[in-house]
Design brief:
about 80% helix, mainly alpha
C-alpha cells in the first residue's frame, strides 16, 4: 500500500506542477502588450477561472461539478495556447519555469 501511495503522490505532484506552469505562463502572457487585447483578456479570464474558488457549476452537484472542471479548464488552456504565437509562449514558459524553480529552491532552503 505504501508504494501505491508514493506513486500516486509523485503523479499528482507532476500534474500539479504542469498546471502551475501553464497558469503562470498564461499569467505572464496576458501581461504582454504585443498580443491582441482579446487574447490577453481571454488568457487572464482562464487564469482567474483556474485560481478562483467560484465555478460555473458548484462542486457539490454530484457529477457535473467535477466534470465542469475536468472539461473547462483543459479546453480553456488549449484554446488560449493556440491563440498565442509559439515564440511568445516559449518566452513566457521559460520565464515561468525560472520563477517556479526559484520559488521551489527558496522553499527547500527555508525548510532546511
Amino acid at each position: 500500500m505504501g508504494l501505491i501511495k508514493i506513486v500516486l503522490k509523485a503523479l499528482l505532484k507532476g500534474r500539479f506542477y504542469k498546471l502551475q506552469l501553464h497558469t503562470k505562463t498564461l499569467s505572464l502572457a496576458s501581461k504582454r502588450s504585443d498580443l491582441p487585447l482579446y487574447t490577453r483578456l481571454f488568457a487572464a479570464f482562464v487564469v482567474l477561472y483556474i485560481l478562483s474558488p467560484i465555478d460555473l457549476i458548484p462542486g457539490f452537484v454530484p457529477v457535473l461539478g467535477i466534470i465542469d472542471d475536468i472539461i473547462l479548464i483543459p479546453l480553456g488552456l488549449i484554446f488560449v495556447m493556440k491563440m498565442i504565437p509559439k515564440h511568445i509562449m516559449n518566452e513566457c514558459r521559460c520565464e515561468a519555469q525560472q520563477m517556479l524553480e526559484c520559488k521551489n529552491k527558496a522553499k527547500v532552503t527555508a525548510e532546511a
